[in-house]
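Before we proceed, please read the two lines closing this message. Tell me what the token row says about the fold.
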Amino acid sequence: MTYSEVLEEARKTIGDKCKACPVCNGVACKNTIPGPGAKGSGTVAIRNYNAWQNICVNMDTIYEHGTVDTSIEFFGKHFAIPVFAGPVGSVNFHYGEKYDDLSYNHTLLSACAKNGSVGFTGDGVNIKIMEGAAKTIAANNGIGIPTIKPWDLDTIKEKMEIVRTGNPFAMAMDIDAAGLPFLKNRNPPAGSKSVAELKQIVEMAKLPFIIKGVMTARAALKAMEAGASAIVVSNHGGRVLDGCPATAEVLPEIVEAVKGRIKIIVDGGIRSGTDVFKALALGADAVIITRPFVNAVFGAGEEGVKAFIEKIKGELEDTMAMTGALKISDISKDMISKY
């Protein structure tokens, strides 16, 4: 099954907001982009996509021939590609009734684990989401990354204790969810976190901890100060604040600030293996892709996820072969240009 065929099937069940477009660039869904907090004009999601298209790849096939290897090691785990599936919440409300959060997470994580990737699980007010995530992660030998929203500390601790039973190899927090409507006006308060609070959260995790939602060099340094093992350069898919720059635009300054001291992941508008290559050339260690994985699950379940991973892997292999990068560590900034 090809990914194009998967998209055709997805359009039958995915609801009326996401269009399962052949090119997922944010134009058709605009400010109806699914997800809690889909605010504003929707132009930041479009900007995310366009920023990657403004970067060109420098073709160079004068090199000693060899076999391309797209695999990476991440926190002691081996993955076939440096591409992870992003967290999604309120799945049935925003994408259709075919899946709810529990069944979506189960399908996504299982398929990713079988095909050399890893999925992040979403979060919500229903505690069963975390219970289901823990069971699925355990069934996949710890290959899954539970993502916890920036609730109050007691709620975070409770959710961490639940997901830890699944023996995940890492945990995450999407701090960029701080402005989402269902986190506002909660008692105890939820949302933004100080460095001291994040440090406490990282210590509670007792695992490599990923802070998602870093958009400045200053924020990256604060995440490091809090003890994060990795950050995700992310503006929450362009869905929480109008006027943000694209993730591709801020990635270089964050890479420069971090100087290799922690892992850097980037998301936002990455849609092809060539885009993945560009992100790695700018200094990212891996990327997160979200919406196309939603399309894959709704289109054909685990088979759809497999088709999408194969598509991305093939495109990345082709780009590496045409630029002289036989392994991920060969990819460098001089292999891309802006025109």
Q: What stands out?
A: The chain has eleven helices and twelve strands. The first helix runs from residue 3 to 10.
